[in-house]
Amino acid sequence: MQRRTFVTATAATAATLAAPMLRAQTLPVGPVRIIVGFAPGGGTDALARLVGQKLQAMWNLTVVVENRAGASGVIAADLVAKAPPDGNTLLMAHINSHALAPGLMPKLGYVVERDFTPLTLVGVTPNLLVSNLDQPAKTVAELVAQCKANPGKVTFGSAGQGSAQHLALESFKLAAGVFALHIPYRGSGPMLADLMGGQIGYSFDTMTAATPHVKSGKVRAIAQTRAKRASGHPTVPTMAESGFPGFEATTWYGLVGPGKMPPAIAQRMNEDINKVLAMPDIKEKLDQYGAEDGGGSAQQFADFIRTEQVKWSKVIKDAKVTIDS
């Protein structure tokens, strides 16, 4: 009897000691990096820092944002695709790296479905058609007239060749029948600096990146590119309202890890990111940036990525968009 009691007690003690270990396995060991494929100051960077700060407090782990700008987010995505799948390296995935690049770059170094573990969609934003304050056009109709009067001379900046902003511009050029000059940058931050400085005239930039400068009066918002007006910009008309029915070009963001992450870690991260997105102060910030419809399951995010790939592959093909390899 005493031996059975000892064995039972020992098993109970072992189970008690193992419980914290099992809980710990739902989070990575050590600091977590969120890799951002664009320069500081852009929309992807802003959302990564917003969510990362909350996750750091929730997990009691150091969470740092690391910028690896270049190739419209592909360099950062490739880095994460090749990282160990232990949860210590995440990516703020972007429409560029996960929906556009597969259709633009036949020799892409990763396969989205194989090399990433979708965690949670953070938000979908319209792009904002913005200009510096010295530009004459204050409406889409006036911009079309300006482009037709000055073919190839009206400049539009983007976060990079083949980026969501670039493809929004190409869609606009096709729809309006105009020719404008595309100027690619290494992210929204440096592009917006040149926009405000007058080096370029316009951009279809992410609402996340452009909003602070619109609110401060440093750039002018002409239109937005989702079917309905974002709650954070109720007075800015949509492209559809401005004479381009059916025009829609969004930017989206979501957290992913390398492929083959442990399911327990992926599930815990999905749950906690959803909790962050539901926090009142985070919801307020997301509304200001125009980032809507975030959250949901990892499977919903995976399905969304696949849908976006199909949509943009067709646009790229129909518009004959190519980028330098």
Characterise the protein shown here.
The protein has 325 residues and is α/β, with parallel strands linked by helices. The protein has two domains: 31-124 and 250-319, 3-Layer(aba) Sandwich (D-Maltodextrin-Binding Protein, domain 2); 126-224, Periplasmic binding protein-like II (D-Maltodextrin-Binding Protein, domain 2). It has twelve helices and nine strands. Strand 5 (155-158), helix 7 and strand 6 (181-184) form a beta-alpha-beta unit.
Oligomer: single chain
User: CATH first level of the largest domain: which class?
Assistant: Alpha Beta
Give the low-confidence spans.
Answer: 1-24
Helix content: 40-55%
Question: Gap between N and C termini, in Å?
Answer: 76 Å
**Largest pleated sheet:** 9 strands, mixed
Q: Write the CATH homologous superfamily of the largest domain.
A: Bordetella uptake gene, domain 1
**Rg over C-alpha atoms, rounded to the nearest angstrom:** 22 Å
What's the total helix number?
Answer: 12
List SSEs in N-to-C order: HEHEHEHHEHEHEHEHEEHHH
Number of strands: 9
| Average residue-wise pLDDT | 90
- Total discrete domains: 2
The structure class reads alpha/beta
Beta-strand portion reads: 15-25%
The shape is: globular
The assigned CATH architecture of the largest domain is 3-Layer(aba) Sandwich
* CATH topology call of the largest domain: D-Maltodextrin-Binding Protein, domain 2
